[in-house]
Structure formats: structure tokens, C-alpha cells
Design a protein that fits this description.
8 helices; single chain
Length: 228
């Protein structure tokens, strides 16, 4: 049985009892980052007094290793192992590894379920103050300037088609200022909500226009919500 388990995006006190029980009872933990998983296991023990299954094995499963590790993981599931899939933080598969695994699990009719948890997308949307009847998540912005501009142009078209619904992007703090300048070239009147370090000690929500925000300095993990 495969358990797709969401985990906190920053604040470890967002752990649920169901997440904790599922993670600590697993025979195999397939994880994007073994270090962050170790921190989650430690926090589970502190909060819920639950210890990891002594026989549990951790398998590193990041993007570059998805295809290579897939046969071994499928073999373990077909043996009947209880397996948890975790990301470094948040919900697996949402701009994180797991697509190939879940696709194969469905194809082979291996039982699986999802243990819900926090996600930066929905948390940022709730912070934004924008109308949320519809929204679109574009994932991480590309690195090339021309591709970023094309992404914003497409996002603007989608937003207008869906009754001016907000668009969500992930972006790196060290590229954000340049990204906002590019956004200003496409949609200077857009309303932007920059969500920084969500759920963490230095969480900060900053709203404004692309040009105004491009003059500020940003650090940490960033979610960008745009209303065109």
C-alpha cells in the first residue's frame, strides 16, 4: 500500500496525528530529502511520542532519480510493503517528485491513498485577498527571461478567460526582482501578492504592483500570487 503524505511547509506544529501515525508505521519511506524527513520524524516523536518503525527503510527519491529508482519501489509495493511517499515539504507531486510512481501504481492497480497536508499554493491564495472562485497554478517559473515573459502572457490570457482568477507561481527570491520587472512589462497594472516564508517565523505578506515590489529586497521561499 502506498501512502502519499503531505507534510508541513514550514511550521512543524502543522503536523497532523494521521500524518504522524502513517509515517511512523511505514516499512518504507520514499522521500525527496532524507535530512528533512529525519527532522519530521524527530518532531513527530516530540509532539506525538511516536517512534519510527524500527524496520523502516528510507529511500532517497528526488527528481533526477525518479526513473532509476522506480522499478525497485514498484517491486517493494508488489511485495506488499507499507510505503510512504514524502516531499521535502508540502504535498508530493505538486511541483515535486512522484508523478511517475503514482502513474505506475494506478496502471498496476496497486492500492494507494493520500494523507492530506499543507500546501503553499492554497496557503498563499488564502493570504492574497483575491477572489478565489477559480485559480490556476503554473508551478515554478522558467529561468530564461523570454520564457518568463511568455509564461506571464499565457497566465494573463488564462486569468481573463476564468473571470480574472488569480494565478500562482513559485519563484526563487534571488530572481524575484528581475521577475517583477518582466511582469511589469506584460501587466503593469496587475495586483501582486508576494508570500514569503509561509508558516515560518519570518512569514511576510507583501502586496503591490510589479514595479513597486521590484524595488524591494526579498529572502527565503517565495510564492507569487497575481491578479491580472
Amino acid at each position: 500500500m502506498l501512502y502519499i503524505v503531505g507534510t508541513p511547509i514550514g511550521n512543524m506544529e502543522d503536523l497532523s496525528l494521521r500524518q504522524a501515525k502513517t509515517i511512523t508505521s511505514a516499512e518504507i519511506i520514499v522521500t525527496e530529502d532524507t535530512r528533512s524527513t529525519g527532522m519530521v520524524l524527530k518532531r513527530i516523536e516530540e509532539l506525538f511520542h511516536l517512534k519510527k518503525n524500527p524496520a523502516c527503510r528510507l529511500i532517497s527519491y528526488y527528481q533526477e532519480k525518479e526513473f532509476e529508482k522506480l522499478p525497485e519501489i514498484i517491486s517493494l509495493l508488489e511485495e506488499g510493503k507499507s510505503m510512504v511517499l514524502m516531499s521535502e515539504s508540502g504535498m508530493p507531486l505538486v511541483s515535486d517528485p512522484g508523478y511517475l510512481l503514482v502513474k505506475e501504481v494506478i496502471k498496476r492497480k496497486i492500492p494507494y491513498t493520500v494523507i492530506p497536508g499543507p500546501t503553499a499554493v492554497v496557503t498563499a491564495l488564502a493570504h492574497s485577498g483575491f477572489k478565489l472562485n477559480h485559480f490556476t497554478f503554473f508551478g515554478f517559473l522558467p529561468r530564461k527571461k523570454g520564457d518568463v515573459v511568455k509564461s506571464f502572457q499565457k497566465a494573463k490570457e488564462v486569468s481573463l478567460l476564468l473571470d480574472e482568477s488569480p494565478i500562482v507561481f513559485y519563484e526563487s527570491a534571488n530572481r524575484l526582482n528581475e521577475t517583477l520587472v518582466l511582469l511589469d512589462s506584460v501587466a503593469p497594472t496587475a495586483q501582486v501578492c508576494v508570500c514569503r516564508e509561509l508558516t515560518k517565523m519570518y512569514e511576510e505578506i507583501i502586496r503591490g504592483t510589479p514595479k513597486g515590489l521590484s524595488e524591494k529586497k526579498f529572502r527565503g521561499e517565495i510564492v507569487l500570487v497575481i491578479a491580472f
